[in-house]
Amino acid sequence: MAELPDRQESLELLGRMCLIRRFEEEAGRQYQRAKAGGFLHLAIGEEATIVGTTSVMREDDYLIGTYRTHGHALARGTPANEVMAELFGRQTGTSGGRGGSMHIFDAGRRFMGGYGIVGGNLPLAAGLALASQYRDEDTVTVCMFGDGASNTGNFGETMNLAALWKLPVLFLVENNLYGMGTSLERHSAVTDLSHKAAGYGIEGERIDGMNVLEVRERVGEHLETVRSEGRPSLVEAFTYRYRGHSAADPEVYREKSEVEEWREKDPIENFIRLCCDQGVLSDDDVEAARREADETVEAAVKFADESPEPALESLYEELYVVSETMGWYAVDERSPEPHRGELGEDAPELARDLAESGAAHADGEDPEQQSRPGVRD
Predict the structure, then answer these.
(1) What one-character-per-residue DSSP string does 123-139 give?
(2) What fold does the segment set 7-306 form as a domain?
């Protein structure tokens, strides 16, 4: 069994896991209050896999994830304020409120984003690793994805190129036993996912993703192998999510007894028990870590709630291409006068009036007190 680190490092590991757990719980609550929009995928139960992995990465290593990545950004150091603001769709969010829960992004900390397409991050990870190789850097790209993504075409294609070109990338499967609502044995012919890349010459290993110390030890060794030998590797972290696939998941596909059994393996509580039993941390240390997580998340909600929403006319900014010489890239049909969507500031007056009227209605103003759209006093 991996040894406990010293008190300071143990406190940092506990603090990050507590922050992720508390953030996810609050994100779920804010989603129910309709403060957070779009889709919401929580990683409650997977904290050890996230924190154990990121704790042994270097600052200049790259991390890329899926759509369940609030915790990954927090573990890499992205402020909770910015992550929560992104969930709220606010201008101060990590992506200016444009990405929402599934598209957290922090290039400054080399967290290269979450992606809503299952397996869509795999070839992007290969591209990041290729860039490191091309620049002759010893940085490693860590690509984290779910068990369901191991069945996509992107998986095989990426494994082949990564092995062929000897790319410095560590593929880490967060195997939480379910691809959405389909159990592992029903969606994968090979259930030991650590073997899935063997046909491409990529060695794999299965680890206990509920044990932050084992994750740190094994992922750390794989990172050093990838870094020193310049070849890809694969780790399967056996973990579990205590909530459904998404906030809208009724969870009819698994028994409550199964969830309770996995709760006995809670990564945070078991780490606390180990630290206290070995005298590395005290009860006061644990209480302080929980209290700090509570305060940080409460402040994040306040920050997000008080942050401004992006201006309506900025809706089509930052597109890949905006050109006057080609066709329309987006069409805005909010009024009887459709116009180029990517040029929102050029919307006709009627479209602006309709938008303002709708915004006022959403804020709770009495529609009878508003001027009729398109009619000037």
Answers:
(1) HHHHHHHHHHHHTT---
(2) Rossmann fold (3.40.50)
